[in-house]
Design goal:
This protein has 125 residues and is mainly beta. The protein has 1 helix and 10 strands; from the N terminus they run H-E-E-E-E-E-E-E-E-E-E. 3% of the residues lie in helices and 42% in strands.
């Protein structure tokens, strides 16, 4: 299962060479997550309505190795948007993927663009 983690590498907006349309803004729940698939990757997409911000990260929990982050609890920690894994409550920054519990586990994050009501995620492959 740890081979799955190798499929996920964070992509900064300037590194994105492919912008993939994953749906319309109305397709995604407010203040919660949804999962989309791109090639062999499952990507969790989040819309924080309070700040009108969009985030994308790997759906794979790096601790339990389950595809569950899109079902995690969202919120913020000292102003950092986060998702908590529904299996063990470890929390990850949706900005840079860091583990907000101070542990070594982290997640890959991806840039999101909204254009004309469509949601696009940027990938480097």
């Amino acid at each position: 299962m740890e081979e799955l983690l190798k499929n996920y590498q964070s992509v900064a907006e300037q590194q994105a060479i492919n912008w993939i349309k994953v749906g319309q803004t109305d397709d995604f729940p407010e203040n919660a997550g949804a999962c989309v698939k791109y090639n062999a990757k499952q990507i969790a997409v989040f819309h924080f309505t309070r700040t009108n911000s969009w985030y994308a990260c790997q759906n794979l929990c790096p601790h339990k190795m389950e595809m569950v982050l899109s079902r995690g609890m969202t919120g913020d920690m000292q102003g950092i948007p986060k998702v908590a894994c529904p299996l063990h409550k470890k929390t990850f920054s949706l900005e840079d993927g860091s583990n907000l519990n101070g542990e070594e586990y982290s997640i890959a994050t991806y840039p999101v663009r909204i254009q004309e009501g469509n949601v696009y995620i940027g990938f480097a492959d």
